[in-house]
Amino acid sequence: DLGRIPQDVYAVGAEKDHIVPWDAAWRVTQLLEGAKVRYVLASSGHIAGIINPPGGKGAYWINDTGTPGATAQVWRETSTAHSGSWWTDWTAWLSKRSGKKGKPPTLGSAAHPPLADAPGAYVLEK
Predict the structure, then answer these.
(1) Residue 42 pLDDT more than 70?
(2) Could you tell me whether strands 80-83 and 37-42 are parallel, antiparallel, or unpaired per DSSP bridges?
(3) How do the domains of the chain map onto residue ranges?
(4) Strands (E), the chain
């Protein structure tokens, strides 16, 4: 029963997604009755709508209302358009719900010492 999930949810759909149409993804706002759902509609398709870092092109729409019985079309008509990447909105949303950053754990052990600092030396190889 998804309606029993009490946590806040940040859900994203992509306007031109040919695999998961955005209005089908929007229905999560109706299923998560016990949660505050922020639904964001990203421009572009299945991949570019999600992989859209800040500084690139794109747009997104936000509307936090998940009114029971509402429709995706009503959500879209009452949403607010923003230019750029939805990632900046997501990080702001996350920071409001996150605690203090803790010190990262010490990696490795005597039996398994770390080979290199993250992300690893292999990422520098050509």
Answers:
(1) yes
(2) unpaired
(3) 2-99
(4) 9-14, 37-42, 59-63, 80-83
Q: Which of 23, 92, 19, 12 is nearest to 52 (CA)?
A: 12
The answer to which of 52-56, 58-62, 80-84 has the lowest mean pLDDT is 52-56
Kindly report the pTM of this predicted structure: 0.78
- For 3-28, the pLDDT digits (tens) are 888 999 999 999 999 999 999 999 99
38 contacts 61 by C-beta, under 8 angstroms: no
What is the distance in angstroms between the CA of the first residue and the CA of the last residue of the chain? 49
Question: How many CB atoms are closer than 10 A to CB 95?
Answer: 8
Q: Which residues lie closer than 8 Å to 22 by C-beta, 6 or more apart?
A: 13, 14, 15, 41, 72
